[in-house]
């Protein structure tokens, strides 16, 4: 029974994940409509530093852009 549920989960993942990935992808620049307010755009929202030894420093810069027409105010930012 266990191998059957694993197979069903594997099949579901193979069918559903490409659909979810397509649905979650942001529209391209030519598809986006102009935004009257501020629109925060981060071209690379995730960064994987890989394996890091304790005490080592990791530095990465996230490029943030206001793609809207309004003023973008960032009141608080926190790293994880």
Write up this protein.
This protein is of the alpha+beta class. It has one domain (2-66). 29% of the residues lie in helices and 8% in strands. It is built from one helix and two strands, in the order αββ. The protein has one helix spanning 2-24, and strands spanning 40-42, 64-66. The chain has a two-stranded antiparallel sheet with strand order 1-2. The longest helix is centred in the first third of the chain and has 23 residues, at 2-24. Residues 1-10 and 19-23 have low confidence and may be disordered.
The helix/strand class is alpha+beta
Would you report the number of β strands? 2
- Give a short account of the largest sheet: 2 strands, antiparallel
Rough outline: elongated
The percentage helix is: 25-40%
Helices and strands in order:
Blueprint: H1 2-24, E1 40-42, E2 64-66
Antiparallel strand pairs: 1-2
